[in-house]
Amino acid sequence: MGSVNPPALNLTIVSYILLPPVLLSSRPFNGPALDLGAERLRTVHNFNVTLKYIGSFNWSTVDGMVENTYLVSRYFAQEWDRNGVVVLHAPGM
Asked: Where are the alpha helices (DSSP H) in 1-93?
């Protein structure tokens, strides 16, 4: 029996994304590719990858868009475990 190597890197990918399929940068269009990329980082490069989608369905007004951007800072300040590297991914921006 061989030993299992610890992860090479703890990586948290935070994707600020629109949840409804209203733009090409929305979750239904970008999510599958991000999921596959995270899985590849896990299997090929031995990274411990957490993929977190942040957004809401409240996007159709300026106030809703501003509210969504605060979700990212709230996640970073209150939920991220500070273990490893965080990557902010903003598709379409």
From this structure: 27-45, 62-74
The four Cα atoms 74, 75, 78, 80 give a dihedral, to 10 degrees, of -160
Rounded to two decimals, the pTM is 0.76
Between CA 5 and CA 46 the distance in angstroms is 8
Listed residue (85, 82, 84, 59) closest to 71, CA to CA: 59
pLDDT tens for 31-68 read: 888 899 999 999 999 999 999 988 877 777 888 778 87
Q: What is the residue whose two structure tokens read 């992860």?
A: 7
Q: List 51's β-bridge partners, or say none.
A: 13
Give the amino acid at 9. L
